[in-house]
Design goal:
Length: about 290
């Protein structure tokens, strides 16, 4: 059987086009013409002798083979970029302090720390998972170099807005939507105030004239997930970090909710080389969640 050696540049174009939702946008990001990108994709399908994309309306979507290829492409590119960073940044040393919202702490933090530690073994990392207000306070006090937080960019001058995610109503995976009317308020499971998503949920229900009551509060997101999975009530989060015991409700089940922005805060305008490298890894890791 003929062995195939993938061209990493071609895989990078393929992965970028899928992540950006447009190969024209990928061409712009990678500094190539759209015709060059088309040629790369044609070369890829000729190598594999199987289509990885198919037309869907005016755009393109992945075939089953394309979905498999995308997963491998991301792994190959990550390993390639990690090797380059390790060789170029072998001299990096010192320490860096990173904070993350609880929604990202359980899965994204593992990926970020793993990639950074493998490439920069001489650097010590201090990581903290907390609430928005805590992260902003710690950035302001110089206790963190970087913090991934829900969007409140007005609270800090050195903030880079990454994008938006839709807030969603969530319930237990095996629990029905609780019955609610004027006599039976909708049971809510919420982080204690102040909380951006708690405020959004209450505002949406009030606007729709739906009675509600908070039946469970917690200072930690793990407590919220446990209570929702147990069927105590519904909550509002994004789909990021959603555990298996929780499900998204249909958009029409309860009043519509706004989007929430995500920002990467940094302690100062110019980061040192260690913090700058960690910043790059955080941006790469969070990109798939933002589509």
């Amino acid at each position: 059987m003929r062995k195939i050696t993938f061209d990493l540049d071609v895989l990078r174009t393929f992965a970028a086009g899928i992540e950006l939702g447009s190969f024209a946008k990928a061409a712009d990001r990678l500094g190539r013409s759209t015709s060059a990108v088309s040629a790369q994709l044609k070369k890829l399908e000729e190598q594999l002798d199987v289509p990885v994309l198919r037309k869907a309306g005016r755009g393109m979507e992945l075939t089953a083979a394309g979905e498999t290829l995308l997963a491998y492409a991301r792994r190959l590119l990550e390993l390639n970029d990690e090797a380059v960073a390790a060789l170029r940044g072998a001299e990096l040393a010192g320490g860096v302090r990173l904070g993350m919202q609880q929604d990202f702490g359980e899965h994204l933090l593992t990926e970020v720390l793993g990639r950074f530690a493998r490439a920069h073994a001489q650097v010590s990392i201090e990581a903290r998972v907390g609430r928005n207000a805590q992260l902003i306070d710690q950035i302001g006090a110089g206790q963190l170099d970087l913090a991934l937080a829900w969007d409140r960019t007005g609270d800090w001058p050195y903030a880079h807005r990454l994008g938006q995610l839709p807030m969603r109503w969530l319930a237990g995976a095996h629990a029905a939507l609780p019955a609610h009317d004027h006599n039976t308020p909708l049971p809510l499971v919420m982080l204690d105030a102040p909380c951006l998503m708690r405020s959004a949920a209450i505002d949406a229900l009030d606007r729709a004239g739906i009675a509600w009551r908070v039946v469970f509060t917690s200072t930690s997101l793990s407590g919220i997930w446990a209570a929702v999975a147990a069927g105590l009530g519904v909550t509002v989060r994004t789909s990021v970090g959603m555990p298996a015991g929780v499900r998204l409700l249909e958009a029409s089940a309860l009043p519509p909710l706004p989007h929430i922005g995500l920002s990467l805060l940094q302690s100062e305008a110019q980061l040192n080389p260690v913090a700058q490298r960690l910043r790059e890894i955080v941006l790469e890791a969070v990109a798939p969640a933002l589509g």
